[in-house]
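Sorry, explain these C-alpha cells?

***
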Amino acid sequence: MNTPSHITHGLWRLPGNNRERFNDIEYWIELAQLLEHGGFDGVFLADVVGTYDTFRDGPETALREGMQIPSNDPLLVVPAMAAVTRRLGFGVTFSTTYEPPFAFARRMSTLDHLTKGRIGWNIVTSYLPNAARNFGLDAEVPHDKRYEIADEYLHVLYKLWEGSWDDDAVLRDRDGGVYTDPAKVRYIDHVGEHFKVKGPHLSEPSPQRTPVLYQATGSPAGIAFAGSHAEVVFTGGRSVDDFRRNAQAMRDAAILQGRRGDDVKFVVQAGVVVGRTEEEAADKLRAYRAHQSLDGILAHSSLPVDLTAYPPQTPIARVVDDARASGVSLPFLAGATGTVGEALQRIIAGREDRFFVSGTPKVVADEIELWLDEAGIDGINLRQYHSFDTARDFAELVVPELRRRGRLREDDAPATLRERLFDRGDRLPENHTGARYRGGANLQSPIDELATAR
C-alpha cells in the first residue's frame, strides 16, 4: 500500500525498513525491479479512501501509527514501475461506490496501454464510515446496496471497454488522413438506476481491454458478485475446510452465471518468514513480533470498544455487558470466554494461524506445497513485513526451491497479466459477463435481462 503501515502495524520502525520512503518514486522503482528479477508474477496495491476513526472515537491512533494514513493514490505509481520492468503485473485497488465509472474506465485503459497489458483491478466497494463522509454522505451505503451499485458499475465499464470500440477501429492511415474509422466506434447510451453514461469510451482498445478482475470477499452478496465478475479472488479461512467451502461457493456462483468453476483462481494472503537456518528465521520472527503494534492492530480492526482500557484480568463478559449498556454491539466477541488479556493475545496471534510459515527454504516450500495440494489454492499474496527484506528473502531463498520442485515458472518472457495467470489469451473469455458487449452487442439490453439469459 502507498503508505507507511499497511497490515503489519508498527513494523515500519524495523531497522533498514524503507516504508517511510513511500513518497519517493525511487522506492517504487526499486521494489518493482526486485520483484521482477525475483520471479514474482505481480505486485498488489491496496487502498482505502477514508481513515480508520472508529477506534477510540477518532483518527488519532491511526495517525500516530502511520496506519494507512498518510496514504497516496495506488494507480499513480504503476507507470514508474512498469517503465523499469517487462513482465511484472500490477493489481490496483479502486472503489466502485463513490466515484463515477466513466473517468475510471479511461484511467484503467491508459494503464493497460502503458503497461502493455499488465494491469489488474482489485474491485472493492469501501467499508469505512469515514470514506462515506469524505464523499458527502452521512453514513455508509448499506453493504448489499454497495454490491448492487458495483454490479451496474461493472456493466458500464464493460460497455466502454468491450463494446464501444471495435478491435480494428484504429486505422492510422497516413495517406488517407484517417486515424480512426468512425463507423467502428459507438456510443454506449447506458441508462440505469445508478448511472447514466453516453460514451463513447475515450481510449482506443488496450491489450487486455478489461483489466484482470480481482476481488476479496466472503459475504453472500460478494460471492454472487464474484460469480459474475471476478477472475482472481483473495479469500482464506481458519482451516482447509473453511477455504474449500469459500472457494466452492464462488465456483458455484460462477457456474450459475454461465462460466466454468475453474474460471476463478484463488489467492490467499500468506505470512512467510524465511532464513538460511532455523535460528535466522526465528530471529527475524522475534524482531517482527517485538515491533508489532497492538494499537495499530486494534485501530485497523475498527473496534468500537477499547479493550486496552480494561485491566487484563477483566472477564470478557463484563466488556460485553458494558457495551450493551451503552448501545454498542460487539459481534466479534459473541460467545467469547476468558479475560481481556486472553482476547488481546488472540487478536495479536491472529495473523499467525492459517497460511503462515517460518523456517528454512525447505520448510517454507514444504508448507506452500501443502497449501497448493491440500487446500487447493492457486497462489499466495505475500504479506510484507519488511521493505524490502520480505520480498528479497523470498526471491533469494524460496523461489529457487519452488522452481526446483516445478512449482514456479522460470519463463520471464513478456506477456499480459491475464495470459500469465491463465495461459489462454489476453482478453476476457467468451463466457465472461463482460464479453457479452463485444462488437456493440447488448448495449441497450437491461442488466437483469442479460442475467436471465445466462
User: Anything to note?
Assistant: Residues 164 and 186 are 5 Å apart (CA to CA). The longest strand covers residues 265-274. The domain at 11-280+356-453 is CATH 3.20.20.30 (TIM Barrel). The chain has two domains: 11-280+356-453, 288-351.
